[in-house]
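Next comes this protein:
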Amino acid sequence: MIKAKKHFGQNFLQDASILSQIIQSIPKDNKDIKHIVEIGPGLGDLTFWLLKSDFKVTSYEIDSELIPILLDRFKDKAENGQFRLINKDANLQWCEHKSLSNVPYILVANLPYYVATKMILNALEDQNCISIVAMTQKEVAMKFASSGGEREFSSLGVLANLTGSCELLFDVAPECFDPIPKVVSSVLRIDKKQELLGDNGLFSDTNEYDKFKDFLKACFIAPRKTLFKNLSSKVEKEKLRIVFDELDINQNLRPHESNVALYLKIYEKIKARNERKQ
């Protein structure tokens, strides 16, 4: 009998109704996208339903002990090419190749709590990943799914909604897992509607996107302080006053009271002024 390994953050989802809800949450409006990438298949319960739904599935599993179990369970699907299993850390694959697949795909995953944020951020940058249906700790899911004006709104909410939309779909009780975690989980869905990088993207390249992330880090460094105060540690106050005046922004605005579109406008204004100065 396989026991969940704490160092891999394993909590095996075994509730049939939740598995069904996850399958139903996968976007099906694009009939050309039939490729699913799954992170952490565990014992294969979600994998079974993905394959049964006629998706072509590539699963990344870091736990070598689970590989023979999964290959035995889905032997026929592996032989006919519908199922591919990769014994590798998905984050390492992103680091080495920038993508988990060489074709457009939908990411479906029950993510380990300790690496969920990093994995979702990597998926957002993955140009081949068009949608994300992921389960993680509710607190993390709420940060990604938050909107401007909500207390939970943070840099994660900005990044998740930059190229599309992010929605918290439903909660999952601890009792649905084995072993039982100490926190409530949530399933979120992110749909990308615009390219992030490149000629048709929001940013020209990864370097420009990294600068925007650094800008957001400064914006939210002290959530209870004003956005102006936070940014003044990175931008000259006089230049910042001009930007705020041009965009008609109240200097008492707090970071969570802004929105995605406004953050992009502030960033572009500051960038333009910096380039003009050079």
